[in-house]
């Protein structure tokens, strides 16, 4: 598919992206935490959904920013690169071969929502992959010696798959103050009429095994979500606790948006901050979702998410998605 690159443009957010102050659930009872995002910019018409940005520093003291996304035929994990967060280009497929345990995916439509972390001498990518044996979507752990890949299966089977809950999808990673990494994900109950939730569980130091017990942080319980919550992203709140972004509703309709919860700890409890999305469809901003955050070479935290940039047909979007960035001004 041919794609055109557009000039960077500003996007409007709800409340000019001053998200809110949440009273009553701060770790500090006298001062409520608040979160503000700057106005967003559409920086790349590269059709990369569920974007995850990995900053990679080089020995020459330059930083490249790699963006990984949900499948875009023929790529299982489409990959883009920027050196300045303004100019981007597609550079290939981070995972050309699916794991041996994966189901066939001839249309490249079943590999979703990657998240990448660096280890001492290599890189791990967690990504949603269809399991042939169960027919469920599961979380794979893959490894590569270079940040761009190619990534290969690290375990010979899924890292995580709640088959009795519809499978497990949309992995992301957060690191606590002690250096322990935690996996967040969604149980894919939407596949088969089961309840849906956002979950958390600590990872072993090698990143290839889960330890402890899983904690359910959120459920789909607000009308705007349409029974769907997905794509968790957790970041620390400056006055204690954690902010939990998530997407709600069907990914290809205008009702898709981004919700926000406040968690007293990584393992909960969490409470949604309002009865509607904090990011929703607006002029120049269709279905903002799949939000993640990252910190650039200068110490600035950014939110990255996707929006549709072509008109809907019969109420659904089919093409294509833009990469949008907004500074996290306070948390």
Write up this protein.
This protein has 331 residues and is mainly beta. It is 0% helix and 43% strand. It has strands at 9-11, 18-21, 34-37, 40-44, 52-57, 63-68, 78-82, 88-93, 112-118, 123-130, 137-144, 152-153, 168-175, 181-187, 197-202, 215-219, 229-236, 242-248, 257-263, 270-272, 286-295, 301-308, 321-330. The strands form 5 sheets. Strands 1, 2, 3, 4, 21, 22 and 23 form a 7-stranded antiparallel beta sheet that branches. The chain has a 4-stranded antiparallel beta sheet with strand order 5-6-7-8, with no helix packed on it. Strands 9-10-11-12 form a 4-stranded antiparallel beta sheet, with no helix packed on it. A hairpin with a 5-residue loop joins strand 17 (229-236) and strand 18 (242-248). The chain is globular, with a radius of gyration of 18 Å. Mean pLDDT is 90; it is low at 1-17 and 21-32.
DSSP summary, beta strand count? 23
Principal-axes shape call: globular
Assign a percent range to the helix content.
under 10%
- By DSSP (H or I, 4+ residues per run), the number of helices equals 0
What is the helix/strand order?
EEEEEEEEEEEEEEEEEEEEEEE
Main beta sheet strand tally, sense and closure? 7 strands, antiparallel
- % residues in beta strands: 35-45%
Structural class: mainly beta
Low-confidence runs (pLDDT<50, min 5 residues)? 1-17, 21-32
CA gyration radius, whole angstroms: 18 Å
């Amino acid at each position: 598919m041919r794609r055109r690159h557009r000039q960077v443009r500003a996007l409007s957010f709800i409340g000019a992206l001053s998200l809110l102050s949440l009273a009553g659930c701060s770790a500090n009872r006298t001062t409520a935490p608040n979160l503000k995002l700057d106005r967003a910019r559409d920086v790349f018409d590269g059709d990369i959904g569920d974007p995850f940005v990995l900053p990679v520093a080089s020995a020459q003291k330059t930083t490249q920013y790699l963006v990984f996304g949900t499948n875009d035929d023929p790529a299982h994990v489409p990959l883009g690169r920027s050196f300045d967060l303004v100019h981007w280009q597609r550079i290939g497929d981070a995972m050309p071969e699916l794991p041996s345990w994966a189901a066939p995916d001839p249309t490249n439509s079943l590999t979703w929502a990657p998240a990448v972390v660096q280890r001492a001498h290599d890189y791990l990518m967690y990504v949603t992959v269809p399991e042939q044996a169960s027919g469920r979507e599961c979380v794979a752990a893959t490894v590569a010696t270079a940040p761009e890949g190619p990534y290969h299966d690290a375990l010979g089977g899924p890292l995580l798959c709640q088959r009795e809950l519809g499978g497990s999808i949309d992995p992301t990673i957060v690191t606590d103050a002690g250096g322990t990494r935690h996996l967040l994900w969604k149980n894919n109950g939407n596949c088969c009429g089961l309840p849906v939730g956002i979950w958390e569980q600590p990872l072993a130091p090698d990143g290839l095994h889960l330890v402890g017990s899983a904690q359910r942080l959120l459920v789909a319980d607000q009308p705007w979500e349409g029974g769907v919550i997905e794509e968790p992203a957790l970041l620390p709140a400056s006055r204690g606790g954690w902010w939990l972004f998530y997407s709600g509703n069907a990914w290809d309709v205008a009702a898709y948006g981004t919700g926000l919860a406040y968690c007293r700890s990584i393992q909960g409890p969490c409470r949604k901050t309002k009865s509607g999305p904090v990011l929703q469809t607006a002029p120049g901003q269709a279905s903002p979702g799949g939000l993640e955050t990252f910190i650039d070479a200068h110490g600035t935290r950014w939110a990255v998410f996707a929006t549709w940039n072509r008109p809907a047909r019969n109420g659904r979007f089919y093409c294509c998605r833009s990469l949008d960035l907004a500074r996290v001004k306070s948390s």
